[in-house]
Amino acid sequence: MKKVIFIIMILTTIISCKNQNESKDELTEMEKGRPKETVSLSGKSFEYNYGDYVYEVNFKSETTLHWKCVKGNEKGREADETYSKQKLNNYTLFISWVEEDGLGVSQVINLKNNTVNTFLKIGKEIIPIAGTIHELQKLDE
């Protein structure tokens, strides 16, 4: 278990260092003039598109999310999860949770580039997958 956590930490560090090196000092004029904002996912819904699999994820609070598979082998499957997050920069977050069946999910979400890098931990295997992410518009009630 310690090895898996160590591997996930190493992978996350590599990705965040790569993203920071690519975007270091690339602030737009608008970003330079405004205070740094904390990225909040709470109350927002996103579509995660991994090609053959598509999920809708609703961040109900700063610690609870609801996901639903809308395309792929798991279509119709859904659950609420308790997640933890860490801000990597103004538009990139690392989030992680463990599902009821033991599946570990760790994600680096980049809201500037609309990308999501996910690592699934199944038993002793780690499966990296990359996809796109976009915010879903709220429907007027």
Automatic annotation (TrEMBL):
Every MoaF-like domain range: 43-133
Source domain of life: Bacteria
Stored Pfam families: MoaF_like
InterPro entries: Calycin, MoaF-like
Family annotation (PROSITE patterns): PROKAR_LIPOPROTEIN
Name assigned to this protein: MoaF-like domain-containing protein
Organism: Tenacibaculum gallaicum
